[in-house]
Amino acid sequence: MSRDHLLALSDGWTLKLGEVIFRAHGLIGRGTVVAKAKVIECPLEWRQKNLKGKTVVVKWSWVPKTRTPEAEFVETARRRAENDKPQMLNHLPEIYCSADFDHLTPECQRLLHTNLGDDVYENRVLRVIIQKELTPIEKIDDPKQLAEVYKQIFECYRWLYDKARIIHRDISISNFMYHKVNGKLYGVLNDFDLALSLDHQPLSTSKTRTGTKPYMAIDLLVD
Question: Which residues does the UniProt record annotate as the domain Protein kinase (predicted)?
Fold first, then answer.
């Protein structure tokens, strides 16, 4: 990242970073930061979409190395939707790019392993994703539209579980978003950071329980 707040990724993406819209605070967690950005350069056209000059969202976070990138879950869900229920594409996020940066803090991670042990500390990677800008559902003023968006998000969650075989695992108001397509509002279930595949992964790939406390099962909080 340069002094004029340009973020350049190795696969041809260059972004001008803008307003920070979310920053996680705390010693424990992924240290997630989310910011708006303008696309300066991008690899040709993404799925026939010219993104140059468009506003997107950039998220970077320190995630356990063993955790499957959320871009893979989103891509799996979108492929399943194309074959099973195309209207679900309107309710899934669009991730344009995902990149991992490993070995950025080798000495720090080695020190943590030495002092805490392998059973407590997990290796982390810096994961950066670029995705379509969405709007929080709190911005919806009309009660009928809000109810419809909630219903769509619930239907998306259920479809993911039943058909895409993906469990989201981080249901919270901060992950309920919407966007407009041809003037119509569509609810979007965002943030697949903690998702799991019901077919290919165990119920937990991390040594720590993560989520949004008010929306977590009581058994997880007292465990």
Answer: 22-223
Confidence band, pLDDT 50/70/90 cuts, at residue 107: low
Q: What are 104's two structure tokens?
A: 């950025």
Contact 215, 172 (CB under 8 A): yes
Give the model confidence (pLDDT) of 108-156 as tens digits.
655 655 555 555 557 788 999 999 999 999 999 999 999 999 999 999 9
Contacts of 184 by beta carbon, 8 Å cutoff, 6+ apart: none
219 burial via Cβ count (<10 Å: 0-12, 13-18, 19+):
exposed
| Interacting residues of 8 by C-beta distance below 8 A, sequence separation 6+ | 1, 2, 14, 15
Strands (E), 24-165: 33-41, 55-64, 95-101, 124-132, 135-136
- Report the CATH number of the 6-222 domain: 1.10.510
Identify the bridge partners of residue 98 per DSSP, sorted by sequence position. 129
AA identity, residue 34: V
State the distance between the two ends of the chain, measured CA to CA, in whole angstroms.
Answer: 40
Whether pTM exceeds 0.85: no
Structure tokens at 207: 């040594």
Residues 6+ apart with CB under 8 A from 208: 28, 122
210 versus 40: the higher-pLDDT residue is 40
Using CA atoms, how far residue 123 sits from 1, 72, 91, 108, 210, in Å, is 23, 20, 33, 10, 16
